[in-house]
């Protein structure tokens, strides 16, 4: 008599209620906003920052509301997206760029009770107004300078080993090494040594008398290879950092000779993304200088923690660097015996050897850990024509985060302590684990892709879903009457479940994803068409109505499962070998197949059972 047990109805109702709750956040449109966070995780963002930012907006005549102070950031909501960029510039001018990052954001309007149960809106791709676009430029001059500094030290070492005594070896303008000699014999010996040891350098002789010179420069081909390496290394590092942020379907690709495009669809915390992506963080390990050390061989640094700086002051460290952060292969957050945060570091084989060699001779001395942050700050100036232009000025901040006594010789694994908070330890571990940037970068362009850019895509996408849905509903009602109504109700449930599952999984909806939804709308009723056609066939063969319903659902089941599984296999393959938009289409299609099987088989059967089950039926409206 086509009766469902009561528990099945409760199960279906529970699934539908679950879908409604987790799909509902997509009805709440986010507010355009600006977000303020610290350049460092250790920086406290308090109400005074909110007050200064709001005053800057008031002075600029920009309307705002809903100022919120979070754990590590301040969020101010605006009335329109057109006001975001002017608001960002006004706040940045008021607060400065040294300590604060101001970024564009979209603030959620989802009710708190939904957030408490983990319900959040579906992420939208860049083509549907839900992401951030960064254009970054790599400072390739720095990689050339760093290599020339290394060559300078190596040239000195090789010349001393060859007994080619030199008067001086200096790096001029970060691009040319000049070695000076007293005699032609010494210069000839040095020239043959450098040609043998440094084939990548172009050498030429100059000078006269007792001031004979060898000038060494990198060839244009070598410089181009270094620049290509810097951009490629930064690409890899940025991809690692984006993956650490957990962004779905990011785009990180090279543009031109020294620029990189980063697109982060579905990002909510753009300030955090900008802070992590834009930083050039590194470590240097140096021994503390002895009291009688010459001033030329040591350097003074302050501590990164303001409280420790106030209590203990800075320290003198040797100029000689033991190892840098590029020797780090892994970094994890941990806690010491007293419960304070620390970073457990693993070095590569060369780094471990250098660390061991430096520390076994200096047991009992203190070793300093320098945390280095390189960033580019915009500086406005007036050019010769009287126009205001903005230049990116490179600043480097080196501060001590740890100054600890060497208890025994260190190897490939050791720990860095003295960190101010778990957040600071987490940030350092993330930056080191993701890899060091080969050269600093600065932001050339930043924008949030909003409805103004994706409005046409959204409009066309929504229209396609509406037209497809309406056409299917009308066709099903005309063709199958009451059974068509049941199929349409199941189709609506399927759409709710599809949106809910995509929201829960954090899948990013793109324009190809909308195409997957349109395809799902058509495929979702395929199963019902198979079932209803089988019921009609059984009725024509003289089978009673209730028996025809049972036979229709039971006999079509295996065909429906086979058809959907084959399509699901294709979707999985598309996701595995595709990227970007193709993956967005595959994800939507896969979820749609699974939800449509539930709604078409179990949901439609439940509705038909409510209409016809448990009573004698003479005729079916099919």
Which structural category do the helix and sheet elements fall into?
alpha+beta
Q: What is the number of helices?
A: 16
Which strand order does the major sheet show? 2-3-1-4
What percentage of amino acids are in beta strands? 25-35%
Query: Shape from CA axes?
Result: elongated
Span of the ends, CA to CA:
18 Å
Specify Rg, calculated over alpha carbons. Answer: 33 Å
Mean pLDDT: 82
* Low-confidence residue ranges: none
**What is the share of helical residues?**
40-55%
Largest sheet: number of strands, sense, barrel closure: 4 strands, antiparallel
The counted number of beta strands is: 23
Protein described:
With 622 residues, the chain is of the alpha+beta class. Helix content is 48%, strand content 26%. The protein is built from 16 helices and 23 strands. It has helices at residues 6-23, 47-59, 84-95, 112-116, 140-161, 184-197, 220-245, 270-278, 306-312, 349-360, 422-434, 451-505, 511-524, 526-540, 545-577, 581-612; strands spanning 31-38, 64-69, 73-78, 100-107, 123-124, 131-138, 168-172, 176-181, 201-208, 211-218, 251-255, 259-265, 280-287, 298-301, 315-318, 323-324, 328-335, 341-347, 366-382, 388-405, 413-416, 441-449, 508-509. The chain has a four-stranded antiparallel sheet, with helices on both faces. Strands 11-12-6-22 form a four-stranded antiparallel sheet. α12 crosses α16, α13 runs parallel beside α16 (581-612) and α15 packs antiparallel against α16. The longest helix is centred in the last third of the chain and has 55 residues, at 451-505. It is elongated. The model has no long low-confidence stretch (mean pLDDT 82).
């Amino acid at each position: 008599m086509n009766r469902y047990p009561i528990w099945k109805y409760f199960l279906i109702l529970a699934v539908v209620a679950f879908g409604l709750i987790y799909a509902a956040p997509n009805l709440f449109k986010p507010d355009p906003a600006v977000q303020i966070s610290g350049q460092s995780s250790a920086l406290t963002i308090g109400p005074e920052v909110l007050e200064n930012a709001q005053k800057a907006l008031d002075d600029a005549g920009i309307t705002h509301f809903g100022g919120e102070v979070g754990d590590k950031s301040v969020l101010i909501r605006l009335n329109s997206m057109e006001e975001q960029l002017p608001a960002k510039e006004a706040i940045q001018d008021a607060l400065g760029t040294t300590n604060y990052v101001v970024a564009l954001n979209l603030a959620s309007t989802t009710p708190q009770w939904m957030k408490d149960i983990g319900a959040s809106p579906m992420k939208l791709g860049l083509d549907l107004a839900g992401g951030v676009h960064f254009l970054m430029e790599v400072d390739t001059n720095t990689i050339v300078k760093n290599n020339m500094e290394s060559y300078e030290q190596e040239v000195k070492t090789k010349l001393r080993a060859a007994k080619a005594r030199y008067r001086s070896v200096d790096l001029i303008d970060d691009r040319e090494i000049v070695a000076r000699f007293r005699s032609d014999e010494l210069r000839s010996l040095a020239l043959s040594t450098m040609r043998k040891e440094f084939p990548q350098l172009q050498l030429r002789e100059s000078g006269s008398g007792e001031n004979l010179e060898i000038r060494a420069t990198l060839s244009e081909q070598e410089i181009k290879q270094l620049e290509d390496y810097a951009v490629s290394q930064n690409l890899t590092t940025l991809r690692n950092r984006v993956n650490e942020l957990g962004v779905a379907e990011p785009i990180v690709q090279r543009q031109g000779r020294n620029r990189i495009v980063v697109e982060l669809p579905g990002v909510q915390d753009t300030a955090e993304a900008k802070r992590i992506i834009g930083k050039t963080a590194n470590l240097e390990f140096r021994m503390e200088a002895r009291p009688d050390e010459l001033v030329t061989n040591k350097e003074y640094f302050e501590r990164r923690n303001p409280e420790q700086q106030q209590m203990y002051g800075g320290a003198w460290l040797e100029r000689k660097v033991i190892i840098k952060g590029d020797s780090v292969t892994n970094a994890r957050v941990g806690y010491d015996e007293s419960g304070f945060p620390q970073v457990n570091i693993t070095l590569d084989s060369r780094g471990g050897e250098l660390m061991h060699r430096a520390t076994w001779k200096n047991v009992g001395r203190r070793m300093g850990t320098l945390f280095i942050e390189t960033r580019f700050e915009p500086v406005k100036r007036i050019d010769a024509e009287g126009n205001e232009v903005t230049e990116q000025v490179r600043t480097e901040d080196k501060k001590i985060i740890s100054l600890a006594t060497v208890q025994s010789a260190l190897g490939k694994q050791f720990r860095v302590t003295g960190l101010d908070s778990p957040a600071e330890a987490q940030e350092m571990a993330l930056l080191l684990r993701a890899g060091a940037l080969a050269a600093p970068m600065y932001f050339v362009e930043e924008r949030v892709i909003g409805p103004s850019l994706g409005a046409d895509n959204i409009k066309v996408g929504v229209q396609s879903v509406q037209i497809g849905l309406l056409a299917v509903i009308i066709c099903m009602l005309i063709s199958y009457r009451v059974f068509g109504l049941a199929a349409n109700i199941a189709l609506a449930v399927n759409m709710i479940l599809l949106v809910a599952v995509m929201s829960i999984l954090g899948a990013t909806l793109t324009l190809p994803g909308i195409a997957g939804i349109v395809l799902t709308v058509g495929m979702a009723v395929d199963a019902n068409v198979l079932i209803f056609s089988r019921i009609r066939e059984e009725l024509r063969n003289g089978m009673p109505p209730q028996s025809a319903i049972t036979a229709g659902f039971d006999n079509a089941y295996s065909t429906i499962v086979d058809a959907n599984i084959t399509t699901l296999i294709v979707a999985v393959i598309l996701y595995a070998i595709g990227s970007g938009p193709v993956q967005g289409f595959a994800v939507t299609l896969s979820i749609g197949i699974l939800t449509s099987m539930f709604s078409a088989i179990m949901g439609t059967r439940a509705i038909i059972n409510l209409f016809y089950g448990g009573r004698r039926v003479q005729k079916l409206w099919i």
